[in-house]
Amino acid sequence: MILLLKVNPSSGLPLYLQIETQIKHRVAAGTLKAGDALPSVRKLAAELAINYHTVVRAYQELEREGIIRTVQGGGTFVADGVPQLLKGERLRRLVPLAAQLAVEAHHLRVSEKEIVEMVQEEFKKLGGTP
Amino acid sequence: MTATTTDAALHTEGLTTIYGKLRALDGMTLHVPRGSVYGFLGRNGAGKTTTIRLLLGLARPTAGSAYVLGREIGTQQLEILERTAFVPERKVLYDHLTPHELVHFTSGFYPRWSREAVEKYARILDIPMKQKFGKLSHGNRTKVCILLALGQNADLLILDEPTLGLDPVITDNVLRVLLEEQASQGRTVFFSSHQLAEVEQIADWIGILDQGNLLLEARLEDVRSQYRVVVAGGNGLPAATSAQVLSVSRSGAFTRYVVCSGAETFAAGLRQHGAASVEVFPLNLREFFLEIVRKEESCTIGDSGEKPEYASSRS
């Protein structure tokens, strides 16, 4: 399985985080479904031409968050989607995004109500709130 | 000998080399974990090649110690060379031999020589094996040198500017081969380079050498996740507050900080200080390198090249 991920080593953002974000996005959007196989660490490292340890780290983070699971000797798969992190931590991770959204909306004179509707629209695209 | 010296691929302590009046290395301490791809960075004349020469036994240190794969340089040099392959910056081999003959010739020196690896990489790197070395292009010569290093089946690959002067396609091939060696065989790759974009792509550790001393040694992903530029607007902001601030420069109403940890907390602190706007940006390796190396020169060239007088006269 080839994922065609795109990472930018010069963006200053950790590469493992770039991989993590893209895989999460695909799982959320449904292009990767529970039970789908992911490429092995070596294969993904070779595909992206990046360090092996970087991919190990990305997979570890995704596994810790319950997004993927690794079967001993049997590969890596998309998990059934039960988040492993505590609710507080899950919310904390969204705070910077919410802050950015509020700042941009303020400058563009977009109302709170319109922003809420916009977010609801995005949830719909993903097939509703999980 | 301690556990650190035996566990590491490379370990040096207080390594010093003096050539006449020049201190080429000035008490350098370096630690390269096994199985890493380590980018060894520094300006011209920083001491990179000197370091590599010492590790290979081509020169002797004035003081200090160094261990390669757990063996001490000088006293256990033969054991080191049996397990260490080297690609020098200058790619000079016998001009009248073909790569095929060079492989045959070189293999005789190495008991652990791997014919499979040579066949595989000659194919991957697309090397014309039947042409005389002297007739090959610079790119092909470099590939032959790398091939001879890979054939040695070494635990450690040391490369001095491996991709210097190569076109983007060959560079990409070479980088992929180095990554493959790390991922499949668990080898350590130690390479010097000025191509910061490629270091950023393949390295998991970096060391920055300047004037014979290691300014910084860190996991690249830690650098990416910790080091930030914080730009704050407003008057009366602190000039420098703590050890986490690497440099501060002012330009008109804005103050620019480079911090090595806790950027968000630092930004929150600035807001409490009355900063009107605070923004946090990541740094890529090039920007980071310039910050680190320029900081050492800050007494001569000023704060990160900013000209506060000009900026304030404009505002």
Q: How much β-strand is present in the residues of chain B?
A: 25-35%
Percent helix of chain A? 40-55%
Parts with pLDDT < 50 across at least 5 consecutive residues of chain B: 298-315
Query: Which pair of protein chains has the largest interface, and what are the residue counts?
Result: A-B, 20 and 26 residues
By CATH, the architecture of the largest domain in chain A is named Orthogonal Bundle
What do the pLDDT scores of chain B average to? 87
Question: What best-fitting shape of chain B do the alpha-carbon axes yield?
Answer: elongated
- Please estimate the helix content of chain B: 25-40%
Uncertain residue segments of chain A:
none
Q: Please give the radius of gyration of chain B in angstroms.
A: 23 Å
Number of helices of chain B: 13
CATH architecture of the largest domain in chain B: 3-Layer(aba) Sandwich
The main β sheet of chain A shows up as: 3 strands, antiparallel
SS-derived structural category of chain A = mainly alpha
Strand segment count of chain B = 14
Shape of chain A: globular
CATH topology name of the largest domain in chain A, in short, is Arc Repressor Mutant, subunit A
Provide the succession of SSEs of chain B: HEEEHEEHEHHHEHEHEEHEEEHEHHH
Largest sheet, strands/sense/barrel of chain B: 6 strands, mixed
Descriptive labels:
heterodimer; A: 130 residues; mainly alpha; Arc Repressor Mutant, subunit A; 2 domains; three-stranded antiparallel sheet; 3 strands; globular; B: alpha/beta; Rossmann fold; six-stranded mixed sheet; four-stranded antiparallel sheet; 14 strands; 37% helix; elongated; disordered C terminus
Q: If you had to describe this structure to a student in words, what would you say it looks like?
A:
The complex is a heterodimer of chains A (130) and B (315). Chain A has two domains: 15-78, Winged helix-like DNA-binding domain superfamily/Winged helix DNA-binding domain (Arc Repressor Mutant, subunit A); 87-125, no CATH class. Helix content of chain A is 55%, strand content 8%. Chain A contains five helices and three strands. Chain A has a three-stranded antiparallel beta sheet. In chain A, a hairpin with a 3-residue loop joins strand 2 (68-71) and strand 3. In chain A, helix 1 (15-29) packs across helix 3 and helix 2 (41-48) packs across helix 3. Chain A is globular and about 50 Å long. Chain B is an alpha/beta fold. A six-stranded mixed beta sheet of chain B has the order 6-7-8-3-9-10, with helices on both faces. In chain B, a hairpin with a 2-residue loop joins strand 9 (205-210) and strand 10 (213-219). In chain B, helix 5 runs antiparallel to helix 6. Classes of the chains: A mainly alpha (130), B alpha/beta (315). At the A-B interface, helix 1, helix 2 and helix 3 of A face helix 7, helix 8, helix 9 and helix 11 of B.
